[in-house]
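Good day; I would like, with your permission, to put a structural problem before you. What I wish to show you is a protein chain and, alongside it, a tokenised description of its three-dimensional fold. Please examine both parts with care and let me know of anything in them that strikes you as inconsistent. Thank you for your consideration; the sequence and its tokens are set out here:

***
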Amino acid sequence: MPSPPEPELPECPVCLQPYSYEETIPRVLSCGHTACEACLSNLPRPFPDTARCPACTQLVRFAPNGAPSSLPKNIDLLRLCRGDAPDRDGGARSSSTSCDRASGRFPPFVPKTWSDELFAAWKGWVLPPGAVSLEDPEGGAGEKAAGDGRVVFSYDGDGDDDELKLSWSVVGLRFRGHADSKVCAFPVASGVSTKIRGRSGFMYSYLAWIMNCLNEMEDSVRKELSLMLRVCSDRFIRVCGAEYGLWGDVETGVLYMVGGTNPGGIWDVLADLRSGFSNEDSCLNGFTTIAMDICETLTGLNAKGVTAGLLGIRCISTDSFGHAYIDLCKILTMGREVFAKVGEFISGKGVNNNNALGIIFRELLENDLFMSPEILFEVLKREGALLDNTGATFPVSCHADVWALGCIMIRLLLGEVFPGETFDMYAEEGADDSSWYMKWLENVAALLEARSIPTFLRRTILQSLKLDPVSRPNITQLWKCIRDLLYNKLGTEMEEINSNGDFHCLILGKLCESAKKISETSIDDIQHEEGDSEVDGWGRELIGDNLADSFLEEKVKCKELQAHRDCITGLALGGGFLFSSSFDKTVQVWSLQDFTHLHTFKGHEHKVMAIIYIDWEQDCCVTGDSGGGIFMWHVCPPLREEPLKKWYEEMDWRYSGIHSLAYANNGYLYSGGGDKLIKAWSLQDSNLVHSMSGHKAVVSSLVVSNGVLYSGSWDGTVRLWALSDHSALTVLGEDVVGKAPSILCLAAHREILVVAYESGNIKVWRKDVLVKSIQLHQGAVFAVSAEDKWVISGGWDKSISIQELSGEGCFSEIRSLGSIACSSVITALLSWQGKLIAGFGDKSIKVYYSAT
């Protein structure tokens, strides 16, 4: 007969080593669980003389010296180690089982359409909503855009990025007092204005709206935008005078890429050149300085695999030291202008003859839009024009920037737009397709020769304007030619750029193409028209044809519940019911299936201040009133109006009754009130078992989480109490007692504790360590709900704020998802299975839910 297997010895639940008398001595915690002395010594200590049980995660107290050796030994387990039958401690298993049951995750009632990866990649590029203002600093309202659609923003230049106050103007318009600094904007996406709210009152936050715009972009557009922002922020590429970023116009719902332009332009240099070459050396020095800076900038862009494809005087500015910069936002804006002009010209016509090409070419040059022939042919292709021209076969490369740079040099040397005589270039019938271009090139050569331009510079410029891109010099050669003119070959050699690689052309990219589709619709055009709306069988309003409502209503819907006659004071869930309490001294019962009204509990003689649901020997709803009364209501059908049990705490005229209730599945009901005490009541006989003192003002909120009772008070502190012996563990916020605003409510979920204050501030604690403090409301926060990483709050300012906790390891930041504008003060909040239930001061209850 085989021998029975040897029994397993009891082991530490942390290190999984068998207990012994020497190394792994079992020590008993106050919660009843056991772990070895060595593991207990290594447990994190959030507060002095405390630690969390590794089995049930309850915060328990050590001896005053904090040493695990002061804890009692588990004698029974030590006896088992000598050979007695093992009897494992089942506390850990039961705890984990209960945690598994409680860990059902439900989606938030507002669906997030963008991923955490998208947020992490783009959040650093988002400018704050107050960074840009559309108000004229002179006090009036400026024009929204010029005829060509070019828009620029200017700011006060105080250097404070957090308090950057910008105001917009049209390109070329200078506001007095703000002429030294400007910011250019280019639209990259559009959506419904963040000022528009659906019938539910929900509105995405500024940051969430931008993330949704980015998420809805095509991948190619998003990649191009990312490339643009990285290039613009490269300090070694002189493309702007300030860092670029993304900013949304909340009025029109347009997302812009904005960037600082330099305070000065090259117009002063051009004015000197217009003087008729009275000081030729001075003019050439000004020309060479600007031309070399432009060459260096374009070389840096080409090194990053980017070619502009279009240049113009408008996209060039100078800083206070006289160095020239290129603004990529303005290049994209000019590219949008080119597409518009080409589209207008070929509308109803076919661009299939030499004269038509010449007309388009002349139109662009006269508007300071310098685009090489090969890119012009590509634009005409994309606009649907029928072409039969050998130039259309020329590939687009960085040589396109050489052609545009040659035109910039001519523009600087002439000091004016291309004169009309250079456009006498139309070929005769039957001539070669490129003859009109060659004629124009001859006219330009004659013009430069007449202006006494140095021969070697004139030849280099004319070579850069050749029709075949391969025949043009590269930018490095142009830079050397200009350097020779100024420094007589003294200078540092520039790196040669490989012109045979793959380049991204800004003008032919997706940003210019998508910008054409952005309609700058005003708010008035999409405001919802009041009227009766259809509802479905559940009472939900159906989505109408209105753009703004469709965008928002498909995200969040709302159902209103009416039964109370006064302000709502609390909400509770349990047994398939929703319970609501009110100043009207009643408790209403609602069905969680369709939120219809089922029953009314009556019996309180004072205002009902607190309400909870407990799963005890029988399911009960417990309420407390301002007169000190505690009522237990039986919630199993059939529902009765009379309470199952009731009792009153001793109080006098100085106290304001019960303000908060909590239950911990240990047979005790906890109450907090105006007498500054927390009282533990036995549910068996309704007797007062223990009173916990320490607060200096009304105990406004109680919550149980992770084996700890948390109490919040008007004294501005949160106290932690052990559930095993009701002893005090520690105090949160004690360092600012007497200065901290009153705590009005608490919410807890797993490791997260959220504290809401009368000042409108929210503090988030994780494992009893403060991780974030943020001002969310203008006025007192009366209600807060926490579920997974979501924090939802509401209060005096009649708005519900939806925040998401984010960060690796621990929650390091709070990001706003959106808000709900309400018609009354929010007094109670509850999150349940993807729905948000809110109680209001106007006696109504609303259920918000996702329609997707």
